[in-house]
Amino acid sequence: SQPLEITPFRLTGPFRLAYTPHIAAYGGYPVCWPLSKHLMMNLFARVARFLLWLLFVSWSVWLLRRLVGWLLRDAASKSQQSEGATPEAQTITSARRLVRDPVCGMHVDETLSIPMREGGELLHFCSPACRDAYAVNVRKLAANA
77 by DSSP, 3-state: which? Predict the structure, then answer.
């Protein structure tokens, strides 16, 4: 058997002009370095595609974890309700709405605040001192009007 001869890659006619940047000066073999614009764009496209898939997969995993956590939390709360949790414990966990004191600006739990109805509006105070200070200011404003 005879050894195979490697013949140089040669183009003729108009094709030589179109592919000249890709042909090496040594023997007419294709050049790999420096990368051509086409190869650089191909590399950039692959990296961009990889990053987009990575973003999509990480977002999907995050969403799946939130969904599973929500389902487990929902199942746990239903099991606690079915076990007959005390009504006091349910009001403690469910009534955590904060209200703002109009005098000092402090936020207080609605169940712990001191309510006062003023002209059809329900106001909540953090202490009896704030409630009394508000009542005194309202009387002063009413006397001046």
Answer: helix
Question: Where do the DSSP E strands lie in the chain?
Answer: 98-100, 107-109, 114-118, 121-125
What DSSP element (H or E) covers 45?
helix 37-82
pLDDT for 75-102, tens place per residue? 777 776 666 555 555 555 555 788 999 9
Copy the structure tokens of residue 129: 């001192």
- pTM (two decimals): 0.35
pLDDT tens-digit readout, 17-55: 545 544 444 455 455 555 677 777 888 889 999 999 999
Beta-strand pair 107-109/121-125: unpaired
- CA proximity to 32, closest of 45, 41, 21: 21
Distance between CA atoms of 129 and 131, rounded to whole angstroms? 5
